[in-house]
Amino acid sequence: MQEKDKSFLESKTSANQFKEFKAGLDKMYSTPEAVINKLVSLFSKKINDRLTGKVAELGLLLLNEMPGYKDNSARHDRHISYKNKRYNRIEEILGNDAWNDADNYKLLIYFFGEEKAAYVRH
User: Fold this and answer.
1) CA pair distance 24, 57, nearest whole angstrom
2) Given this model, what pLDDT does residue 40 score?
3) DSSP 8-state symbol, 67
4) Quick one: angle between helices 53-62 and 17-30, nearest 10?
5) Are 26 and 60 in contact (CB under 8 A)?
6) Are the beta carbons of 53 and 34 closer than 8 angstroms?
């Protein structure tokens, strides 16, 4: 009976989403956008689904994983202080359109999926 329970519980484990998000965003941020778009165009006709380097930077800032802007505290219990260096960069990238901008909205889709992104936007 215990062996069944153990195998059942192991089948229910999921990957660490934070690490997956960080790894994906790091990869998109560190690789030049032109190279990414050329590679994607070889395999897919939908280049527009990819995040740009600037939007990947926004994602890393929101996760508190952007080098040079990273707080030295725990990631999840530290808020973004008003008008600090990280806040100003997020505000600069979001611009006036914020999540209504198509590129920024792709980040919401990346984090939350197509269905939930529409609700998170507002």
Assistant:
1) 11
2) 60
3) T
4) 140
5) yes
6) no
Contact 110, 51 (CB under 8 A): yes
- Residue the block writes with tokens 């202080």: 81
Taking the C-alpha atoms of residue 2 and residue 7, their distance in angstroms, rounded to an integer, is: 9
Which residue type sits at 17? Answer: Q
Which residues lie below 8 Å from residue 61, measured CB to CB, with a gap of 6+?
69, 86, 89, 90, 93
Top pLDDT among 48 and 106 is at 106
- Positions of E strands within the chain: none
pLDDT of residue 49: 63
Nearest to 55 by CA among 17, 1, 109: 109
Cα–Cα nearest to 86, from 120, 60, 54: 60
The size of the chain, in residues, is 122
Question: Cα separation of 115 and 108, whole Å?
Answer: 10
Question: What one-letter code names the amino acid at 44?
Answer: S
| 5, two tokens | 């329970």
How far apart are alpha carbons 95 and 81 in whole angstroms?
18
